[in-house]
Amino acid sequence: MIVNEKRMVSLARIMVGVVTSIVFLCPAIGGPNTATVMKICATRTFEENGSFDSCRHSTFNDIFLQTTSHGYSYMKDCNTNGELSGKFYGHGACNGGLSPLNCTVCLLNAMRDMVSACIHSIGPRLKLVDCRVRYEDYQFDPNY
Description:
Strand content: 15-25%
Structural class: alpha+beta
Low-confidence stretches: 19-28
């Protein structure tokens, strides 16, 4: 795994561990169902440390921070400075019945699993029972 990918996966694992610990220390809250429903890794790839990679990192961060405050469905775009199609589009969504904390835990699991399984893939999708994440180099319907 490339160094930048390792850092992202490590950070996601730490965040998942901390948030998951909080969730399971409060049994009344319970945790999200993070069983994988669907995983698609596209064959096209991007270069590490380029504009597309930078957009991916910032978009994942925004999805992680903003999804629960935007009706549990959040789409973000980023300018890749002409790399690939020139744009990066990312989307995250959670089951509306989840608490904000459980939505965040689910998204962290989904992002971690997608980055681990689909290294440098352009257009991966990962759907867990309680949430989903996707990114592309073109605008897409977030409902699919």
